[in-house]
Amino acid sequence: MNKSHIATLIENHRTFFASGTTRDISFRIEQLKTLRRMIKDNEQAFFRALRQDLGRNDFESYGGDTEITVNLIDYVLKNIRSWVKPRRVRTSLVYFAAKSFVIPEPLGTTLIIGPWNFPVQLMLSPLTGAIAAGNCAVLKPSHASAATSSLLVKLIRAYFDSRFISCVEGDRESARILLEEQFDHIFFTGGPAAGKVVMAAAAKHLTPVTLELGGKNPCIVDADTDLDITARRITWGKFYNNGQSCVAVDYLLVDKRIKHELLNRIVKNLHDWYGPDPAKSTNYGRIINETHFDRVYRLMGKGTIICGGQGDRASRYIAPTVIDGITGSEPIMEDEIFGPLLPVIEYETLDQAISSVNSRPKPLALYFFSRSRAMQERVLRETSSGGGCINDTVIHETADRLPFGGVGMSGMGKYHGKATFDTFSHERAFMRSGFILAADALLRYPPYQDHLKWLRKIY
Description:
Shape: globular
Helix content: 40-55%
Distance between the termini: 59 Å
CATH superfamily of the largest domain: Aldehyde Dehydrogenase, Chain A, domain 1
CATH architecture of the largest domain: 3-Layer(aba) Sandwich
CATH topology of the largest domain: Aldehyde Dehydrogenase, Chain A, domain 1
Number of strands: 18
Strand order of the largest sheet: 10-13-14-9-8-15-16
Number of domains: 2
């Protein structure tokens, strides 16, 4: 799609928004139900596309892409009528006769740029918020997940008025052309490098942005933990979707006293779940493309491989791999891995683990395993991250009532649950006054004389 077509498309969205149609709560509810129906009607088609793009099994596609989005839509539908109502707030005594209130209003025409790792959820969950808040939306799915991208374009055209929601297919050039246009909000999910490009483009129009990025998510394991449960939850949180998740465990910081036992259990889990040869397992996915395969495979140059290490570029397969003997300065520790490699760093004191985490940019997620409540509170107090879990991994990303987002280099802005609605809304603050003479305080009008004395008393 060229520049003139995109300009026309956006102008059509602006005209449709200006008509006031999207402000009608009944219209929004109907469109949310349409989005839900689109997902449920085409669930098997989504599964096939995700299998083609990522080698993903249907269980992970259902839990990580389609049904998690449906659950969000259901939550929004349950609450939207209360969210859109004006909200009263207390008024200062100075203006005792006035009433203060906040009105959530739509922003206008929004741009949603999605990634390839969860190409349904991370496209349609933000769209749920955009619809609920009363906006028009342009979707730009990732060209890397080509099968899912093509399916989304086809379905969006079939289920929605193109003046309300449109879906633009294409590579980075299409994204670049879109970013040259002026939007009322841009929602981007991807890596920090691309996030900087999006933010720079948005700055030219002073467009507000939500950046859902990533980072090196640490998992700290204290010696005082349940090793069996800890190992299972770490193994799942690392190798789910082949490690291609922004909230995946990126590296392990483990107390040296239990490292050997923990790693043995992780290796056993991998064998139990994926068999002696994970390449033959229907439960184990694939790297998205050859470019990412090459990037991830090159990271195995340092450390001692405890299990895995095999790869096949033609099938985009990299075995689930655990790498011990990492010090923290290796290439694998420079950027987010986004693949099935688990580097392991041992520590002797929790001070060392916390210092290691704090020496890097703030991650999107942080995980800590320990029975000690005091240790848990200390890690929460002395580190910073977008979110995370105590004694678990990843699941905070699925919680309806928890806002999800990053901090610092891992992103800005929140969504999920009500935060999804809030992200795509402007909270318009107003005060309503009457014409009662007694309420028209002469104190605020010149000449001031001794008004300051009385103003001090009121405040």
